[in-house]
């Protein structure tokens, strides 16, 4: 299931232990090296000073329309507790707002949103807001993950906007067609069946 990244902000966190909502997502933490979600910053009435405000992605048991389901409030950690999350937070990386350019340095626009796959928690597509001149004909552009070449602090580099994806299409000769099914309505030919 693909979900817009913007829909994850303010998404409820549900606890199996309590049987209801315990927090809401305030920030999605994305690792720029892998373009995958590694955690969420959360806030809620039950989050006190002694409880961390980071939910590692491994703690999410299930993602549903009602919310993200976790075991209990004990799943929340402090940002200093998980080294990988701490390093990513120190980068202060935000995918939304980055410039998108081609490898030939042609400006495509800015990242307005992204889609993720709920099971794998990786960014699958970038939704790019086009510059004023290009927005007249095409206000938004969807860039699939396989088009992304590089991501840094300031921009996302993609393959050329007009570059065609090469695909090998096998040419099939219709005279070579051999059906791979048995017609259940034909009379059985026992003589030919024995020869096979």
Give a topology summary.
Layout: E1 2-4, E2 12-15, E3 20-31, E4 36-43, E5 54-56, E6 62-63, E7 68-70, H1 83-91, E8 99-102, E9 107-117, E10 123-129, H2 132-135, E11 140-144, E12 148-151, E13 155-158, H3 190-195
How would you characterize the overall build of this protein?
Helices cover 10% and strands 36% of the residues. The chain is mainly β and 196 residues long. Strands 1, 8, 9, 10, 11, 12 and 13 form a 7-stranded mixed sheet that branches. A 6-stranded mixed sheet has the order 5-4-3-2-7-6. The chain is elongated and about 50 Å long.
Instruction: Tell me the structural class.
Output: mainly beta
Q: What portion of residues belong to β-strands?
A: 35-45%
Low-confidence stretches: 163-185
Number of strands: 13
Brief overview, please?
With 196 residues, the protein is mainly beta. The chain has helices at residues 83-91, 132-135, 190-195, and strands spanning 2-4, 12-15, 20-31, 36-43, 54-56, 62-63, 68-70, 99-102, 107-117, 123-129, 140-144, 148-151, 155-158. Helix content is 10%, strand content 36%.
Primary descriptors:
196 residues, mainly beta, seven-stranded mixed sheet, six-stranded mixed sheet, 3 helices, 10% helix, 36% strand
């Amino acid at each position: 299931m693909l979900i817009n990244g913007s829909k994850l902000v303010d998404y409820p966190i549900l606890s199996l232990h309590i049987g209801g909502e315990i927090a809401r997502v305030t920030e999605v933490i994305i690792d720029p090296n892998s373009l995958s979600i590694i955690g969420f910053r959360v806030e809620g009435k039950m989050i006190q000073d002694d409880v961390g405000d980071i939910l590692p992605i491994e703690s999410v048991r299930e993602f549903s329309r009602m919310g993200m389901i976790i075991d209990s409030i004990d799943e929340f950690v402090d940002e200093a507790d998980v080294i990988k999350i701490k390093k990513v937070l120190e980068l202060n990386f935000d995918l939304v707002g980055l410039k998108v350019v081609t490898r030939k340095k042609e400006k495509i626009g800015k990242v307005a949103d992204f889609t993720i796959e709920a099971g794998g928690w990786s960014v699958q597509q970038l939704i790019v807001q086009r510059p004023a001149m290009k927005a007249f004909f095409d206000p938004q552009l969807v860039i699939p993950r396989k088009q992304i070449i590089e991501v840094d602090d300031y921009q996302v580099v993609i393959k050329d906007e007009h570059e065609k994806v090469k695909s090998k299409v096998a040419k099939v000769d219709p005279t070579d067609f051999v059906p791979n099914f048995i017609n259940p309505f034909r009379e059985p030919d026992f003589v030919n069946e024995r020869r096979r």
